[in-house]
Structures are given as structure tokens and as C-alpha cells.
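User: Hey, quick favor. My workstation is busy. Could you predict this chain's structure for me?
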Amino acid sequence: MPWTEGRQTMAEFSQKRGKQRDEVLGSTVDFLLANARLVLGVGGAAVLGIATLAVKRLIDRATSPRDEDDAKGDTTRLEESWKELNLLTATPRQQPRPPPAALSQPVSPPDPSPAAPEGPTDTGPEMSLQLSSPVPLCLTFQEKLLAFEQTHVTIPAAHVALAKQLTGDIGLELQAYLRNKFPELPFGALVPGGPLYDGLQAGAAERVHILVPLVLEAGLWSLVPGADTVARDPRCWAVRRTQLEFRPRGSSPWDRFLVGGYLSSRVLLELLRKALASCVNWPAIGSLLGCLIRPSVAAEELLLDVQHERLELTVAVLLVVAGAGPEDPLLLAWPLEGLAGNLWLQDLYPAEAARLRVLDERDAGMRRRLLRLLCGVCRRHPSLRRLDRRHLTQVVLRLGEHEADWAEAALGARFLQALEALIDSLERASLPCQLNPSVNLFGSLRDEEIDALGFALFCGLQAPEWLL
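Assistant: No problem, here it is.
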């Protein structure tokens, strides 16, 4: 009958399409397995092959014409599919590789796997679950802190040597210029310095210093504490001209910078600023040293931006007045405001760095290492940038004198203690300087700035990884 013949024709057509589909799917599976063996290895290719075979059978059952024999064999096929899925679950997963060796402890090599038995073994459900669960890789805060130090704080030794060389060469060129431009002014030998030279540099963004000392005549100048001046500023000192009745004004080459009988730091800063910005031939000096040097005109300080093919550097040129004795303060010409505009700011950094060095002599330098970490963290977070090296040094000095354990294993605990000490000082809005207790280093912060710093540090104390 026509209806019977049409049904037979449709069956033959379905069988041909099924064979073509099987041939295409089979060639696709072979191609996938051949490439998977190259990428995943033999074990990965075996897992992929089992999964592909299971999916192929599901597709065959869904698309093949259903007859009475297929209906009878559904239970058998279902059992075979679940056995294949069980094989997939029992197949051991490849363990994740540990991160690179940038942490505190070396990563131990994996234990050699025992030889596989030759015969089939019966793996129970407990063994299957143990093999399938991945091993979690959890880093402690100490390890994360050391990784942050390696990535964002530590400077390669080659960069340190290059930065010192460039700074020294710039200092020599600047000294030659000052002697030619101002032969009547007795400047001393320019001295490079700063955290880079004391092992306290935290990353490549910190400034390098070039100190330009003024040679003052003995007996003609005296230092007056800023608290005894009209400014009443304990951070500063005044340099007063004396012996005017015997050595009248004009006897010293520095008398041209007097304001009200005192040597003005502001007038000297303006003189040197104009010279650095418009008179020094920085392109020629830069080409001689193999770098690009630009004076920073917008900054209130005397800054030079140095660009080398291997690093970038900021050099701060600082006019200084050093006392005759070792106990005399080191004074900086700093852009101050108000009544203290003509005074000189006392630089406590050399004394603080020396005290840290003495405390670290009995340890492995952990206090200076903690200071570098704190400086690196605060510089990277916009909400903590108001905390500079002066604030952090006071906290580390206090911890260094009271805490006994300064081993590397305790570095994370000391870091959290430093955060707690900063929060406590912010709550009181007071951080007295150890070398000059009358100076409150938080005195220049506004209330809203103190609140923002305290909130950021409190959040960092609750989740220290957020700071890294």
C-alpha cells in the first residue's frame, strides 16, 4: 500500500541520516580526543572521552526513532549512563599549582603518588569524595604582607644604585652652578641623603634629598627656638644676626637675606627657586647624564623630576643650616605659612633614622622593615595619604621600644599593632613627637580629616587584607 511504502521510505531515510550523524559525530569526537591528549594529557583525554561518550548516548536516545526494543532497553542504558557519571566523579582532579615562591616560606614539592595497582580496584564513596574535593590554598595575613612587600615596597638593588648615581651626579652639577652663579655666597658641599640612603625607601615614589648647606660665620649667628618667637611654633627655629655693634650689617654675605634681624628662609627659597627654574641648563645636564631633568615649577618645594629609561625619580633640593655642635638642630628652609614664614623648620629625620638603626642592631632590621611597609600601604590608599613618614616613624619608634619580639614571624602582628596605635592617637587627636614632645604631629589635621583617617584605619584593622 502507498501508506506502507511511504513509512518504509521514511524509515530508510531516518536510518541514513542516523548513520551520517554518527559518522560526523564520531569524527568530531576523534578530533577532540586527539587534540585533548596533546593539551590535557592522557588522564584529561580519558575524562573528556567518557564525558563525550555519555553525551553522545544521551543525544542518540533523544533523536533516534523509538521502537519496542528501545523501550525494553531503557533501564539498561540508564544504568550504564550513571556508571559513566560515577567514573567521572571518581576520577582524581589535578591539584592546583602553588603560587610563585614570593612568600615567607618555600613551597614543598608534592609527595610522589604511589604506583597504581594493575587490577581493577573497588573505590568506595568515601575514597571518591576525598579524591574529587580540591585542596584549598589559603594564605595567612603574614604571607600576604610579605608578598605585598616583595611587589610594592622592595626596590631592586640595580635601581637603588642607579638612583644614587644620578642623585650624586645632579648634586655635583648643581654645586658647580651655585659656585659660578653666586660666588659671594659660601655654600658647603652638597650632600645627597634621605630614606634611600638609610634603607628606608618604600617603593620608587619617595623623594631623594640633596642638602645645600649654608656656611654661616661663627659668632655672628645664633639659633632661637620657635616657641620663643612671635610665631610660637615649637617646630621651628629662628636664625638671628648677632654682633651688629661690632660687625655691622653688610659684613656677612648672608645679610642681604635678613628680615627683621633674622635670616629669612623664604627669601633664600625664592632666590634658589628662580635660579633652578630659569637659569640652570637642565637639558644639557640631562643629556650629559643620560636622563631628562625638569624643575617642578608648580610645587612650593624645590623639586626636580628625573626621567631615566630605567626609572623615574624626584629630587628635593633642601637649603639647610647646621649647627656647630652635634646636639644642635638641623634646620630646613621650608615653605611655611603665617608668622612662621621666615623661620626654619627643624628636620628630625636624621635623628629618628639613627635611633631606628640603633634599635635594629639587636634584631634583623624588622622595625625599619615595618616602617617601609606602613609607608607603602599609606601611599597606595588615597584615604591614608595624609599619614606620612613623620607620623608612622613615631608609631614604629614607640613599638620598637616597648615590644620585645621583633622576629620576622611577628611582623604581621606588629603591623596590626601599629594600626591600633594610630587609631588610638587619632581618637585623642594627639601624636607627640618623641624627640620634641611639644610638637603634636596631628595638630595640622582638621577634624574631618582625622575622622576619615580613623574610619579607614578601623576598616583596615577589621579586614587587613583590604589594605594590601
